[in-house]
Amino acid sequence: MKLLEVTDLQVHFPVERGWFRKPIEFVKAVDGVNLELAPGETLGLVGESGCGKSTLGRALVRLVNPTAGRIRFNGIDLLTLEGKALRQQRRKLQMIFQDPASALDPRLTIESIVGEALEIHQIVRGRKARRERIGQLLTDVGLHPDHRNRYPHEFSGGQRQRIGIARALAVEPRFIVCDEPVSALDVSVQAQVVNLLHDLQEQRGLAYLFIAHDLAVVEHFSHRIAVMYLGNIIETGSARSVTRLPRHPYTQALISAVPALDPLTRRTRIVLGGDVPSPIHPPKGCPFHPRCPLAESRCRYEPPVPREILPQHWVSCHLAK
Amino acid sequence: MLLLDIRDLTLAFGTGPNAMPAVEGLSLSLSQGETLGLVGESGSGKSITALSIARLLPSPPARYLRGQIRLDGRDVLTATPRSLRELRGGVVSYVFQEPGSSLNPVLRIETQIRETLRQHRPQAADRPEVIRLLERVGIPAPERRCREYPHQLSGGMQQRVMIAMALASRPKLLVADEPTTALDVTIQAQILELLDDLSEEFGMSILLITHNLGLVAQLADRVAIMYAGQIVETGPVPEVLRSPLHPYTRLLLNSVPQLGKDRARLTAIPGSVPSLPNVPPGCRFHPRCPHAQPDCRQIEPVELPAASLNRTVRCPYALTFT
Fold first, then answer.
1. Is the CB of A261 less than 8 angstroms away from the CB of B154?
2. Closest Cα of chain A to B86: distance in Å?
3. Of A47, B111, B119, B303, most Cβ neighbours within 10 A?
4. What distance in Å separates residue A244's CA from the closest CA in chain B?
5. How many CA within 13 A on the CB side of residue B8?
6. HSE (CB half, 13 Å, CA atoms) of B152?
7. Does A260 map to a domain?
């Protein structure tokens, strides 16, 4: 049974002009995305800045409201929920942000930061139970329970990210959107946080949407990978299949652009020309065609549909084989 | 002859008992046409070292306590303001991490590049030269682009403009401080390619400052690894990356996930990088080092030649672990 099913999800932001703030154009940040996630699974979402990956993540936990489409979580349609019913479901969907320094309130102690959600959702009753629960959460993420009365500025970047994780775990979610959780951290600390997320998944059966631009981290951490370009998912499959047998020319370029650590295998880089086009006026046909080294005439007017090219490996490209 | 020769550089912020040493006993050299990667995490002192080369750090608060920096035969730390002005741009140019904040938002691209040209090559300070430079760094439609303002360009384009500006004075050394960190990987690949071509074409030396070992593997000839204000290991890129000696380098290489390599868990380095006032005594890495010996806590190791003639490592036990 699927934990999360997303169908034709669209998030369009209006660009307003004039006295009456009339929307004249739309930024098509997420433009028809389909994806699925099983319990305990990690889906890695990669793409360049501006491709809509963060917006997609935020839409899944309804931090932004989608303009169209459907999100089914545990069989419940999230987009029709409001008020109390929404709050109840939100408890099962949490988020971890990129910059832990700005995601934590500098004036609150760690205890208040982690405990706030416990109160809102009335998870524990009584001060003693609350204290115990917070102590347990801090221990779970590798912090010392005695640190509960400290403030965020007293912690290093990696420790702050642990606090963010403890806060997300407080409400016992089943699904966590991790939006670039390690990209603001030092290389030597990244591995600690990645390993922690991995252990928590094994202990609690959490499902993750792991958003990152670093393909190597995503490959390492995810079961499946989805590659996003201009609001569309253009390739998706198992992590192994997508990184070793990429079929979409964009994915191929993305992978060849990752600098290899071994100086003797300087990869032949497929260097893409140009920049990502504006999501206000995405190109007609295949969104990637203006930068695609293989583009043919039909790529210019006919949008490709996803095809299953290898088992469980879907590619939106007319030319992929 | 060495283009850049830094010997025993020690630099602190503040005075008296509150002085915080940011760089200690740092020696580096770079010959003409060579690319050196200076690798370290945040707070390791790599950017401060880079800024010291043209004495760009305001002093005070920065104080040079010991050491010497020789750039193109001139002593930077005792140079007169006039001679410094010639060195800056004339011998060494910089490209920084965030092109958006390095460019002047209210001046057209052309005006900004011409400013550099007027200073260093006044006879060439005209539009055709600006267009030639923009063309060289791969900006499409340079005639149109040179009349635009920085905000009209994408991040990758802005970084190309910064590189064009750095090249305008025909420097012998380009210091690139995290030049691609703010950019996407596909754009990063474009900029890398460009830097590689330029160093070959002009015989320019590059000091590449980064936390990304992958970039060093792809671009640099030699590498120096910094930790908490000191260089812990130097050597040719293939040797250091394939058979690292210092425990920090080994762990760093193992903690970076690599595409196409299966590994269930990443090797994490426990703890975090010490901040300036809290640098531990003895070997600065000892609290995080899995091989630390009792004397590592007290005795500060020195840089020793190791394995081959052109490698050094700051760890007396480096050759004893396998």
1. no
2. 36
3. A47
4. 7
5. 5
6. 10
7. yes
Give every residue of chain B whose pLDDT is below 70, as ranges.
262-264, 307, 322
Fold for B2-33+43-81+212-257+265-313, please state it. Rossmann fold (3.40.50)
Around A236, how many Cα atoms within 13 Å sit in the side-chain half-sphere? 19
CB contact under 8 A, B251 and A188: yes
Q: Is A157 within the bounds of a domain?
A: no
Tokens 């509150």 belong to B18
Question: What is the pLDDT, as a whole number, of residue B100?
Answer: 83
- Give, for all 321 residues of chain A, the pLDDT tens digit: 789 999 999 999 988 877 777 877 888 899 999 999 999 999 999 988 888 888 999 999 989 999 999 999 988 998 888 888 888 888 899 999 988 888 899 999 999 999 998 888 888 888 899 999 999 999 999 898 888 999 998 888 888 999 999 999 999 999 999 998 888 788 878 888 999 999 999 999 999 999 988 888 899 889 999 999 999 999 999 999 999 999 999 999 988 888 888 777 665 677 777 777 888 888 889 999 998 988 899 999 999 999 999 999 999 999 988
- Residues in A closer than 8 angstroms to B212, CB to CB, are 259
Contact A269 B193 (CB under 8 A): yes
Interfacial B residues in 264-293 facing A (CB < 8 Å): 265-270, 272-273, 288
How many Å is the Cα radius of gyration of chain A?
21
What domain range is A299 assigned to? 238-321
Residue A219, chain B, CB below 8 Å: the answer is yes
- Tell me the C-alpha distance between B211 and B207, whole Å: 13
From the list A216, A271, A276, which residue is nearest B259 (CB)? Answer: A216
Using CA atoms, how far residue B41 sits from A98, A187, B209, B242, B288, in Å, is 18, 7, 10, 20, 14
- Contact assessment for residue B35 and residue B241, using Cβ atoms and an 8 Å cutoff: no
Confidence (pLDDT) at A190 = 86
Whether A308 is covered by a domain: the verdict is: yes
Is the omega angle on the peptide bond into residue B122 within 30 degrees of 0, that is, cis?
no
Burial of B81 by CB count in 10 Å (0-12 exposed, 13-18 middle, 19+ buried)?
exposed
Number of domains in chain A: 1
**Size of the A and B interface in Cβ pairs below 8 Å:** 131
Residue A268's pLDDT is 67
Inter-chain residue contact B257 with A262, CB threshold 8 Å: no
Residue with tokens 């880089």: A269
Q: What token pair was written down for A130?
A: 């609350």
Which are the contacts of B163, defined by CB distance < 8 A and separation ≥ 6? B95, B137, B179, B191, B194, B195, B198
Cβ <8 Å between A271 and B267: no
Q: Can you give the pLDDT at residue B307?
A: 67
Q: Is A263 on the interface with B (CB under 8 A)?
A: yes
Please report whether residue A178 resides in a domain.
Answer: no
Residue A261 contacts B where some CB pair is shorter than 8 Å: yes
**Number of C-beta neighbours around residue B49 at 10 A:** 27
A305: contact with B, CB 8 A cutoff: no
Other C-beta atoms lying within 10 Å of the C-beta of residue B105: 9
- Give A257's contacts in chain B (Cβ within 8 Å): 185-186, 188-189
